[in-house]
Structures are given as C-alpha cells and as structure tokens.
Write the structure tokens for this entry.
Amino acid sequence: MAAPELTSPRSPRVLAARRLARRNARAKERRFLAEGPQAVREAVVRHRADAEVGREGTLVEVFATVEAAERHADIVEAARAASVSVHTASDAIVAEISQTVTPQGLVGVCRFLDSPLSDVLAARPRLVAVLAHVRDPGNAGTVLRCADAAGADAVVLTDASVDLYNPKSVRASVGSLFHLPVTVGVPIERVVSGLHEAGVRVLAADGAGQRDLDAELDAGRMSGPTAWVFGNEAWGLPEETRALADEVVRVPIHGKAESLNLATAAAVCLYASARAQRARS
C-alpha cells in the first residue's frame, strides 16, 4: 500500500481545506466541503457536466485516505479523468478536514453551486421548495434531498435560513445538492413576488392552515406550477410570511401524532404536488 502524500496538518493545502468548516471562510472563498463517497461521486458528475457546457467545474480537489482511494478507485479515477487533483492523505489528516465522528475517507473541496433567483424563475419552474426561517442544517439538507426525489425544479433558501453549505446540510442532502438549482440568501418577500410574476402558486405549509392538503388534491387545485414554503422546525412560519402565500395548507393528521417533523411534512407536500402535476401532463 503506497504511503499517503499528505501527513502534516500544517500543510497549506490542508489548512485551506480545514478553514472551510467555518462559515465566514466558506463565504469568502465561495467553496465548501463535500464528505463521503456519494457526495464526491455526485460532485464529479456535476463537475463534468459543468465542463461540457463551458462552466467552471464544481470540484476543486479531493482528499482521500489510501484505503478509501483503493476502495473507491472508480471515484478517484473519474475525478482524475476530469482533471481534478486527488491527494492521498493520512487518516488523521482526512479526519481533521471532514470533522465528523466517523470519517468516510473521502472529502471534496467544491465551488459554490447557487444560482440567482432570476435564473431559477426564467426556467419557468413547476415545483419549487422554499425554506424560510429554517435553522437546522440537517433539516435543510434533508428537505433538499426530498425536493430532488420528488422531481422539484429548484430549492430556495431565504436570507433568514441556515447556510446551505454547512457540512451538516451537505451531508444530509446525500448528493442531491449537486442535482438541482439552488438559490440562497433572498428575502422571502422577493422570493414570493418573483414566483407570482412567474405564474407560480405559492402555498405555505403550516399545521394551523385553513386549507387541508387532501381537500386541495380532491378539488384539483394542485396540478399547476406550485411553490411550497416551509418554516422553522419549532415554531413554523411567522404570520407575515403566511400572509404572503396564496393559501396556507396543513397536512392532515389522521392518527394521534401531535405533528410531523419538517422533512416529513415537506416530503408529503412535494410528492402531493408532483403526483398531481404528473396526472395532468
């Protein structure tokens, strides 16, 4: 087994990657970390797709333990074939960069992926997930994954929401971050007005909503272009945000559960819209 290339935690390359664990460093460099074979694999695919259309590639470099480089030789070879530098490093170095309890041996340094809201709207989206006041990074990444699975056209995080590039968000997305357009840092008022101008109906998901999701489906009101606004994990959406939406819709609770968590509610809402839209097409 070959010796690792990087063994010193003081290596400038290692220090630069470690700094990306901090939000201010990510914002300054417009780079983030993607950990694990699934995330790095998807980053390679996105990198190649970007290069094919003349855009700057997503993936900057990859750090891998010797064992991980051998176990995931297909990912390493694909990265190198896409002209991405792959550095083998000691287990301790990769663990410091990834900063997880159980490192998976592969970490990619990636460029930010977000698109302007104007680009998202210009594509005439039919299904959008909007995260307003979402503060938990794991929830943000999981909702993004749900949106990807449901076939959404974009995800928007408002300026009151968590950093999309937080390592916990990236991990929770399980590679979906690289699949669909994302917009970040836009005030909710601007998001809603832009969606309305693009002909998209805006629904706020809230347990106290007057409209029932099942009733909306039965009435045939879910088949058009739709954006779902999801709120804070603990206290939902503030009144001023609910007032911006066309309707406030609740997911019906048919059993005895007090409520649904954010990601579960988002999955139910997004799949309901996706099914209604497919039935119409």
About this structure: The radius of gyration is 20 Å. Residues 217 and 276 are 7 Å apart (CA to CA).
